[in-house]
Design a protein that fits this description.
Helix content is 1%, strand content 37%. By secondary structure, it is mainly beta.
Length: 620
């Protein structure tokens, strides 16, 4: 019998710690700490990803990498949309809209995010289009039209070397195939048979088009056949293991992926290895049809879909790396009174947090609670009962200021030393809902309201002994959750005056505020957030356009906002502690505005992780 050294050219190593990179895939080693033989093996699975900003179905997904994918067009359930969103591997952000709003388009499946085309599609009521548009990373520009307008066509390739096949120009399906050279379309060798609702992947000279329907109506005539295109001719490939329509396709003719078909293949994944199709053990969590794809044959993205029309996204990985997606999970209940009015009164880290003040909807509270990473414990009371109080710092060195005792506003301020509060110099003005950033010794108070509910542009700097006026906000606002330091702070969203919602984000440089990119999706206020730097902040929960509570969260990367995994429960005026990778959202009221109930529950966000898939080898 051949030895391991003879087979692989190396001996079995003895280590005390397992390798941490996927270069060890297929190797065997002896872990002397565990007293076991181990190896790294490949696996494949779908995991939850951050949701789209706009829920939609029948959108077109493009981009040849998951961390540079694009979702454009589609149907929201009530109307077609031209909305375009970019995915950077962790969240979605808005970009330029299509010039022609439509859905059921073909697109360049193997192109980078900054050089994409889409063509054709449906333009209700009852119409199809031959319009082509190119995307340069920010805007769409009209190009020359397809020779044949149609919907439910499939695309493949790059820009400037694309191909589309099949589709439905109405009322019957077509065999038409066209190639794109970056400026115009040319009709080329047709498909061997009529086809619509099919999937495509690959490049112009090496593409595969699979599944779909052979003749109307679609699903009764679904098929499992597939064809390969070499730039000139068509060849039949081995069939898919299942028949279906509306599959998405990603990858190349060497390593491809087909997934999320219709009507009964919505959670199926099919691998293409260059010669055959085979069902994957990896299934999608959401059984949606009409999803948008993107990525490669080993790392793909599935977004949106129906029913119902969804914003959900999932990521597929086939590698020796285990990917754990970022997500919210249930945390321990607070120990004190369930309350609201805390969106500015939560500070500290996920293992050393602090929450104080709030209201039980009828009475302001002076309760203080500390969080140690596993449980909440009551601590010294704040000097006065107050809601919507500002605060910043750490669990052992915090500052609180302003707020409302229940009627009117207060200027009271206090320091916390880890066990008790001590009154300090009051703010120069009574302020409700001021937002605190920085440290207890170098704090920044921005925005809020005085008198009554009139939002303010006021900015105050605290130097551990007195308050000094800083540069005013560009836009008066309250009910937002900021993050950063006294000289580098961020103020996103909130309520203006009297109650106008604000989407703009402002950044403070220690002397003045500058308006930067707006928040994504919906204008949001009454959020909670976590103390972090100006280049990595997080906002969660709050209200959508002032009309309803939400469970959504968003990440700021120092330049733009992007989507983040959602919570299980929507709520407003909660406390937030932690940072952009580990946020805890505590208590609050749900749902809002009515009937609304105060909750003692918490949820904790943990950012995604990656690790090699180390397996213990056993005899069986």
């Amino acid at each position: 019998m051949a030895t391991y050294r003879e087979l692989h050219g190396k001996a079995v190593k003895t280590v005390t710690t397992n390798p941490s990179d996927d270069a060890a895939e297929g190797q065997i080693w002896f872990n002397s700490t565990d007293n076991t033989f181990k190896s790294v093996v490949s696996l494949e699975a779908w995991s939850s990803a951050s949701p789209l900003l706009t829920a939609r179905e029948r959108a077109t997904g493009t981009g040849n990498a998951v961390n540079a994918a694009l979702c454009s067009g589609g149907h929201t359930g009530t109307a077609q949309t031209g909305a375009t969103e970019e995915f950077n591997g962790s969240g979605w952000s808005t970009s330029g809209s299509l010039g022609t709003t439509r859905y059921m388009m073909g697109g360049s499946t193997n192109a980078p995010q900054t050089a994409v085309w889409v063509a054709g599609g449906a333009t209700p009521p009852g119409g199809v289009t031959n319009a082509t548009e190119e995307y340069d990373g920010s805007t769409w520009t009209a190009s020359n039209n397809l020779n044949l307008g149609r919907m439910f066509l499939a695309g493949a390739g790059t820009e400037p070397a694309g191909v589309v096949a099949g589709g439905n120009p109405g009322p019957d399906y077509t065999t038409a195939v066209e190639e794109y050279n970056g400026s115009s379309w040319t009709s080329v060798t047709v498909l061997p048979s009529k086809r619509s609702y099919l999937a495509g992947f690959g490049v112009q000279t090496a593409a595969i088009f699979a599944g779909g329907s052979t003749t109307p109506p679609a699903n009764p005539n679904k098929t499992n056949t597939a064809f390969e295109y070499d730039g000139t001719n068509w060849t039949s490939t081995p069939t898919l293991p299942v028949s279906g329509t509306d599959f998405d396709g990603t990858g190349t003719t060497a390593v491809g992926l087909v997934f999320a078909g219709n009507p009964d293949q919505t959670n199926k994944t099919i691998n293409w290895d260059g010669s055959t199709f085979a069902l994957s053990p990896a299934t999608l969590a959401n059984s949606f049809r009409h999803r948008a794809g993107g990525g490669t044959g080993s790392n793909a993205l599935a977004s949106g879909g129906t029913p119902p029309v969804s914003s959900a996204s999932e990521e597929y990985n086939k590698s020796s790396t285990v990917i754990t997606a970022g997500a919210f999970s249930s945390g321990p209940n607070i120990s004190g009174t369930a309350r609201r009015g805390l969106n500015c009164g939560g500070i500290g880290t996920i293992t050393a947090g602090l929450m104080f003040g709030g209201t039980d909807a009828s009475t302001a509270k002076n309760e203080t609670e500390e969080y140690n990473g596993s449980s909440w414990t009551g601590s010294g009371n704040y000097p006065i009962s107050v809601q919507n109080v500002g605060g910043t710092g750490t669990q052992t060195a915090a500052i609180g200021f302003g707020g409302s005792p229940g009627s009117g506003n207060t200027a009271t301020a206090a320091d916390y030393d880890g066990s008790s509060w001590t009154a300090i110099t009051s703010m120069p003005t009574t302020t409700w809902q001021p937002v605190g950033t920085g440290t207890a010794a170098a704090a920044l108070s921005s925005g809020g309201a005085y008198p009554g509910s009139t939002s303010t542009t006021q900015t105050l700097e605290w130097d551990n002994s007195s308050w000094t006026a800083g540069g005013s906000l560009t836009t008066a606002r309250r009910y937002f959750s900021g993050f950063g330091s006294q000289t580098d702070s961020v103020a996103p969203g909130g309520f203006g005056s009297p109650n106008a919602m604000i989407s703009a984000t402002e950044e403070y440089n220690g002397s003045s505020w500058t308006t930067v990119n707006s928040m994504v999706a919906t204008i949001r206020s009454q959020t909670c957030g976590a103390e972090s730097s100006s280049s990595a902040g997080i906002n969660a929960t709050g209200t959508l356009n002032g009309s309803s509570s939400t469970n959504k969260s968003f990440i700021y990367n120092g330049t733009t906002w992007q989507t983040n995994p959602s919570m299980a429960t929507d709520r407003v005026e909660s406390a937030g502690i932690g940072d952009s990778t580990t946020l805890m959202v505590a208590t609050g009221i749900t749902p809002w505005p009515s009937p609304g109930a105060l909750v003692s529950t918490t949820e904790q966000f943990t950012a995604g992780t990656t690790a090699v898939n180390v397996k213990t080898l056993t005899q069986s």
